[in-house]
Amino acid sequence: MKKIGILFGKENTFPQAFVDRINSKNEQDITAEFVKVDKVFQGEALDYAVIVDRISQDVPFYRSMLKNAAISGTAVINNPFWWSADEKFFNNALALKIGVPVPKTVLLPSKEHPDDTSEESFRNLSYPLNWPAIFKYVGFPAYMKPFDGGGWKEVYKMHSSEDFFNKYNGTKQYVMMLQEEIIFTEYFRCYCIGGKYVKIMQYEPRNAFHERYVIEGASTDQKLLDTIKKYTILLNQYLGYDFNTVEFAVHDGIPYAIDFCNPAPDADINSVGAENFEWVVENAANYAIERAKAQKEGADNLTWGEYVKSSATGSPLVVAAPKTKAKSAKTKSAEKVKPAAANVEN
Q1: Is residue 276 part of a domain?
Q2: Of 61, 128, 288, 344, which sits with the fewest C-beta atoms within 10 Å of its C-beta?
Q3: What pLDDT sits at residue 320?
Q4: In whole angstroms, what is the distance from residue 235 CA to residue 227 CA?
Q5: CA gap 153, 342 in Å, rounded
Q6: Which uninterrupted H or E stretch holds 78?
Q7: CA–CA separation, 315 vs 288, rounded Å?
Q8: Burial of 269 (C-beta count, 10 Å sphere; 0-12/13-18/19+)
Q9: Buried residues in 176-194 as b, exposed as e (16+ CB within 10 A)
Q10: Spatial separation of the C-alpha atoms in residues 294 and 281, rounded to whole Å
Q11: Using DSSP, how many helices (H) and how many strands (E) does the chain show?
Q12: How far is the C-alpha of 203 from the C-alpha of 209, rounded, in Å?
């Protein structure tokens, strides 16, 4: 009997529905349950063919436990090694290399020194930075947010260099990104499961949390939707995520990937709505069953993205040129508009 487990925290509706859906399918020799862990011995397997991870980003003990399970043959969704290494600034750089439009973005060092460091730790960093060049590249209005943060914590909108410094000076030890604003006419959030199943959801990030998926007049531009689907699959296949969401802001007909590092995305029926919830439960269940059937004891059963594969073989990233051309760097653009105080799980 192969067991599929789900590891989760505060969320309620998705984990139970996921387990119930798998068990209702009556697949031979496959069952699902909530993960139970009472001991973790080095190099010893857990009793799960597949574990769907919804919480290790907040619990370091779980992340290490999942790596130990993975090296012992468990197929962990998502790959805990890649998830540990990934962050939003790298994702933007990768998107550029594979032809997906993204906002102009700059990495900023933490305003305060990290613990156990001093000025001597930053001998290679020129300070002050070349602020005029940075501000010219990004433009204003702009957004500042953590380079590896989840949700909308510590996100700020700024309208000038003075406004920037006022807010940057209060960011403590966070490593931040400064990102241009995309003035959008349409906005989409897309589930992607298994690097192949895509659910495109019309989304309004400026609405109250429970109203963001309730959109009238959803886009019927099939060419745009096809491009969004293509970009969603491309990003997830190169990143290697089994379960992720990608957000796009559409400006002048071009979908800009805004946020695509959400390996434990919101899947609560009360926020995503009944239709989207049904889709994600069904497709997550089917994919977990697929991975359980393919799982081989003692082998590496993780998903590794095309970027890692190409790096391991020394091969260049090879991606067909996208049909949609990004606008000139001279064109003003920017990221989505959300209340700076909002705290939304992505």
Answers
A1: no
A2: 128
A3: 53
A4: 12
A5: 7
A6: none
A7: 30
A8: middle
A9: bbbbbbbebebbbbbbbbb
A10: 20
A11: 10, 12
A12: 11
Question: Within 72-221, where are the H helices?
Answer: 80-85, 88-97, 131-138, 161-168
CATH number, residue 69: 3.40.50.20
Between CA 209 and CA 343 the distance in angstroms is: 9
> Are residues 18 and 282 in contact, defined by beta-carbon separation less than 8 angstroms?
no
pLDDT at 285: 98
Half-sphere exposure at residue 87, Cβ-oriented, CA atoms within 13 angstroms: 11
Q: Are 189 and 203 in contact (CB under 8 A)?
A: yes
- pLDDT value, residue 31: 98
Distance CA 242, CA 229 (A): 15
Evaluate whether residue 14 is within a structural domain: yes
d(CA 78, CA 268): 18
The pLDDT, as a whole number, for residue 217 is 67
Q: Is the dihedral of CA 115, 61, 34, 282 positive or negative?
A: positive
Beta strand 75-77 pairing with 50-53: parallel
The residue segments making up the domain with residue 55 are 2-78
The pair of structure tokens assigned to 327 is 């606008």
The answer to whether residue 132 sits within a structural domain is: no
Number of residues written out for the chain: 346
Residue 41, in any domain of the structure: yes
The residue behind tokens 């071009």 is 254
pLDDT at 312: 87
> Residues near 260 by Cβ (< 8 Å), separated by ≥ 6?
91, 95, 235, 236, 239, 244, 245, 246, 247
Question: Is the distance from CB of 288 to CB of 22 less than 8 angstroms?
Answer: yes
The predicted-structure confidence for 98-116, as pLDDT tens digits, reads as follows 999 999 999 999 999 999 9
Say how many CA atoms lie within 13 Å of 301 toward its Cβ. Answer: 27
Question: Both tokens of residue 202?
Answer: 């019309």
Q: What is the pTM of this model?
A: 0.88
- Name the strands in the sheet holding 142-146, side by side, starting at the edge strand that comes first in the sequence: 105-108, 176-180, 142-146, 156-158
Closest among 136, 162, 2, 134 to 75, alpha carbons compared: 2
Helices 88-97 and 222-239 cross at an angle (nearest 10°) of: 120
Which of the residues in the chain have pLDDT under 70? 150-152, 217, 319-346
Side chain identity, residue 112: E
pLDDT the model gives residue 332: 32
